[in-house]
Design brief:
heterotrimer; A alpha/beta; B alpha/beta; C alpha/beta; B: alpha/beta; Rossmann fold; 13 helices; 48% helix; 14% strand; globular; C: alpha/beta; six-stranded parallel beta sheet; four-stranded mixed beta sheet; 23 helices; 11% strand; binds iron/sulfur cluster; metal-binding (chain C); 4Fe-4S (chain C); repeat (chain C); iron-sulfur (chain C); LutB/LldF (chain C)
Chain lengths: 214, 261, 468
């Protein structure tokens, strides 16, 4: 343990001597902690929902709009049947109270290797890049976002914000603090590692479908 | 030409090493262009090299020795102008850096820096001399030399000026902004890499179908011309100044007829 | 990884004559450059963001100790562990200790250049652990037993044919030839590994002091499977990667994907904060961060502080004509291209990599695209200066420089020599060119030398105008 403590001190001291100063005093530290970054946010002049959809679809994501949460199970059913998938899915427990069909088998736990469809709740949409923000938790296991081939994400239209900074504000406001994993998802998994040819479905979902509510 | 009646700016011409030895015609072209634009041009005999070979080889002392010489020789002119983006970027950007810890020479380096100009940008940006009565029969493609382009922002000026030349058609090549592989001593230290790079450049030149390549730095032009000649490609190579001055009437670089001066 | 930068010359010549390599490089070059240019053009604020990114990084670096301490506090508060490693060996040992403690058999890895820098895989394998690279590019080169040749596209030097061969040999055929089939095959093979992994190791693009989070940015999702499914998640990162807040990370995220792959954003941006919570249904039980110094704090002190702004986007190598000609392996260590030519001598020693700072035309294209405006050519020149000061520069070159200086500071002598050169070269030329010149074969082996006309400009000018 001692060696490690020493490494920490050695590195911090080396940083300080490179900066030609000792440790900062409390006033200086307080000033740094109080700093509020004001970086340029790229201008947007588009309706948030329209921009979100346009951007998300530009990266091979798909979006459909429904009027209310009650319509979500039917949309999932239609998607599932369209892809010829069996009547089961990994579904985040946050969505478990929707009016699902009786024969729809749901796994609210972590996704195992055999899971091929999942349905997750997004806590925000980000119009800037057309991205989804999902937070790990008992109602939304992270494995649901990456293991299945088909990932359906339920996003309330009112949760779409303009810029990333606004999404971070949502995270900071959470009573339960930062999620273990915050996943910003901008479409299906892809790779260009073989001769720069873009191929979808590298390791994560081959398709990401957004059901936009409201 | 003798004394210009209304005295325009007094310009000291920086006669670059490569131009001095390999292409005097570029110097005469520069003088013609400057005088036509109303300048009084002098070529101080005490000049040699800007010092860049030393600087880029990491020999800062040698670079400083040369820089002091250039400063002393040119500081009493209104401007120091040279037909090379590379040398002029050294004077403009590197001299002040070389003397940053020297309170005696720093102000002199800075003073020279701000009145140093690459020929084409001087004509276009300072003198607003955008007319040309030159004539050139042919299709030319312009190579952007790196120091001029990225160091001094030279891109539009030569193209605009060349656009004024009667009979000349400009055709852009792919990757005109990519280095030709000259790089001063680089081309002899790493000849194979340099060859690969100049080959890519030559391929892009040939793809345009142009019969002439023009550019603003003799290092690049000699490299390109040398490679074009070696593969027997019938493309002429001129410095932009030669074309603008109407002095591009010979066979171009690497094609000069002996004793044609 | 053993450094082979001393063989740069041989390896670069070899690379130029390697047909497959040239084919692969040719395919990559245009794509990266064109897509980045398009992204930059589509974002009016792009140049302003570069300037802000540069300034923000400079502010962070000037207070690096503070932000590292704040970051550490936040990681611990989130239930994670922070380890500090002065050098590569210390970093390897920290990670080995963790892996041994949890009795790791299979270790999955997301792409991490720091793990390459510290030679992690070799160490883990030596201790009997199975190490599986999961980024497709990294997986390909792991099968080929090669180091990465690019910091964001590690297998950019491989053609599809070569990938087909590697997969056939490793997975036991039938040989796939379509990109889709190759990707799918790797997907199936690697799925199994994620689920079996004991430890998942990833890099960290950004470390956020505000929340104690590490951020990775990927397209494939492999980094997420790696860190979510393993029992232990270890993040390896350089100490310079810390940023104060999520908002600061955003500034760099806006530049990273655009500069790297020419995308507006990569598919996944993942913010990881500590191990799984009591009520979480998945995620690692332990979360460790290894903060690696390995020469970075020293860089902070001098002319090379600028280099610590690097966000590892790879734009400099994508735009480097030398990299484009020889590929990444010629550079002989982990980091190739312009940023590697600065970092390698600084981390591994000036004389271990003499050629790297020199094999550059200082054309400046790298700096013109670097999202954090690192003056790479100036830093390379600075390294040449250090080589010159420390007598690492070859003797012949030093002599030549001394001679040049002697002559060039004596105008009369210099002009006389120039006149001799002009006459001699003109004399031996034919039809305006010289095809072969002893002592200058490095030029004339591949190019003619344009011949002078016989007299120098200054000579002719004197004759015409008679000025002093
Ligand atoms: S030096 Fe600049 S361009 Fe190169 S990898 Fe680093 S951030 Fe990117």
């Amino acid at each position: 343990m001692n060696a490690r403590v020493n490494a920490r001190e050695a590195i911090l001291n080396s940083v300080r001597s490179a900066l030609k100063r000792g440790p900062l005093d409390d006033t200086q530290r307080a000033a740094l902690d109080a700093r509020i970054p004001q970086h340029t946010r790229p201008a947007q002049d588009e309706d948030l929902v329209a921009r979100f959809m346009r951007k998300f679809e530009s990266r091979a994501g798909t979006v459909e709009r429904v009027t209310g949460f009650d319509a979500v199970p039917a949309a999932v059913e239609a998607y599932r049947l369209g892809k010829g998938l069996p009547a089961r899915a990994a579904v985040g427990a946050a969505l478990k109270d929707l009016p699902w069909p009786a024969d729809f088998e749901m796994n609210h736990g972590a996704a195992g290797i055999a899971e091929i469809l999942s349905v997750s709740p997004a806590i925000a949409g980000i119009a800037e890049t057309g991205s989804l923000m999902l937070a790990a938790g008992p109602g939304s296991p992270t494995t649901h976002n990456f293991v299945p081939d088909d990932h359906v994400v339920v996003l309330e239209a009112s949760r779409i914000v303009g810029h990333f900074e606004e999404a971070w504000t949502i995270l900071r406001a959470r009573a339960e603090g930062m999620p273990r994993a915050t996943n910003i998802i901008s479409g299906p998994s892809r790779t260009a590692d073989v001769e720069q040819t873009i191929q979808l479905g590298a390791h994560g979902p081959r398709r990401v479908h957004v059901i936009l509510v409201g | 030409m003798t004394e210009t009646p209304t005295r325009g700016p007094r310009v000291g011409l920086f006669a670059t090493c490569l131009m001095n030895v390999f292409r005097p015609n570029v110097g005469f072209s520069a003088v013609k262009l400057l005088e036509d634009a109303g300048c009084t041009v002098e070529v101080p005999a005490a000049q040699t090299c800007c010092g860049q070979p030393g600087y880029n080889s990491g020999d800062y002392d040698a670079a400083r020795a040369l820089a002091r010489q250039v400063i002393e020789t040119f500081e009493h002119y209104d401007y120091i102008v040279g037909p090379s983006g590379s040398c002029m970027a050294t004077i403009r950007h590197d001299y002040p850096v070389l003397f940053q810890d020297d309170p005696q020479w720093l102000p002199r380096a800075q003073a020279l820096s701000v009145k140093s100009w690459e020929l084409l940008s001087f004509l276009a940006d300072v003198l607003d001399a955008t007319q040309s009565d030159a004539h050139y029969d042919g299709t030319a493609t312009y190579h952007d030399s790196c120091s001029g382009l990225r160091g001094l922002g030279i891109k539009g000026q030569p193209r605009a000026l060349l656009g004024e030349v009667d009979g000349l058609k400009l055709k852009e090549m792919e990757d005109s902004e990519v280095c030709c592989g000259f790089g001063g001593t680089f081309c002899v230290k790493y000849p194979e890499i340099s060859e690969k790079m100049v080959d890519d450049k030559v391929r892009n030149i040939l793809a345009t179908g142009a019969d002439t390549v023009v550019g603003g730095d003799l290092g690049c032009l000699m490299n390109i011309a040398g490679r074009l000649k070696r593969i027997n490609a019938p493309v002429k190579v001129f410095h932009t100044a030669e074309v603008l001055a109407g002095l591009a009437d010979g066979p171009g670089l690497a094609g000069a007829v002996k004793g044609s001066d | 990884m053993e450094i082979r930068s001393k063989e740069f010359k041989e390896r670069s010549v070899f690379a130029i004559h390697d047909a497959s390599l040239q084919q692969a490089l040719g395919k990559a070059r245009g794509g990266f450059v064109g897509k980045r240019a398009q992204q930059a053009a589509e974002l009016p604020e792009f140049e302003q963001l570069r300037e802000e990114a540069k300034n923000t990084k400079n502010e962070i670096l000037a207070n690096l100790d503070h932000y590292l301490e704040r970051y550490e506090q936040a990681v611990v508060a989130a239930g994670g562990h922070v380890h500090w490693a002065r050098d590569a060996e210390e970093a390897r040992n920290i990670i080995l200790d963790i892996c041994k403690r949890v009795d790791a058999k299979t270790i999955t890895k997301g792409k991490s250049m720091v793990s390459e820098e510290i030679g992690l895989n070799e160490a883990l394998i030596e201790h009997g652990m199975e190490v599986v690279e999961t980024d497709l590019g990294e997986y390909i080169i792991q099968l080929a037993h090669e180091p990465p040749s690019h910091i964001i596209a590690p297998a950019v030097h491989k053609t599809k044919d070569q990938v087909s061969d590697l997969f056939e040999a490793a997975h036991g055929g039938p040989r796939k030839t379509e990109v889709a089939d190759l990707v799918n095959e790797a997907r199936q093979v690697l799925r199994d590994k994620y689920f079996r992994a004991d430890v998942g190791i990833t890099g960290g693009n950004f470390l956020v002091a505000e929340t104690g989070s590490s951020i990775i940015v990927t397209n494939e999702g492999n980094g997420d499977l790696t860190q979510t499914l393993a029992k232990v998640h270890i993040v390896t990162s350089g100490i310079e990667r810390v940023v104060p807040t999520l908002d600061d990370a955003t500034l760099f995220l806006r530049l990273l994907a655009r500069s790297a792959t020419g995308q507006e954003t990569e598919t996944y941006t993942t913010i990881s904060t500590g191990p799984r919570h009591a009520d979480d249904l998945d995620g690692p039980q332990e979360y460790h961060v290894v903060l690696v110094d390995n020469g970075r704090s020293k860089m902070l002190g001098g002319r090379f502080r600028d280099m610590l702004r690097c966000i590892r986007c790879g734009a400099c190598m994508n735009h480097c004509p030398v990299y484009g000609a020889v590929g990444g392996h010629a550079y002989g260590w982990v980091y190739p291209g312009p940023m590697g030519s600065v970092l390698t001598p600084l981390i591994k020693g000036l004389d271990a990599a003499y050629d790297l700072p020199n094999a550059c035309t200082l054309n400046g294209r790298c700096a013109s695209v670097c999202p954090v405006k690192i003056p790479l050519p100036d830093l390379l020149r600075e390294l040449r200066h250090m080589q010159h000061q420390q007598d690492i520069t070859p003797v012949m070159q030093k002599r030549a420089l001394n001679l040049w200086r002697f002559a060039a500071t004596r105008p009369k002598l210099y002009h006389a020599l120039e006149q001799v050169a002009a006459r001699v070269l003109s004399g031996i030329s034919r039809k305006g060119r010289i095809r072969r010149l002893p002592l200058a074969s490095a030029w004339t082996d591949s190019r003619d030398l344009p011949a002078p006309a016989g007299r120098t400009f200054l000579e002719l000018w004197q004759g015409k105008r008679g000025q002093k």
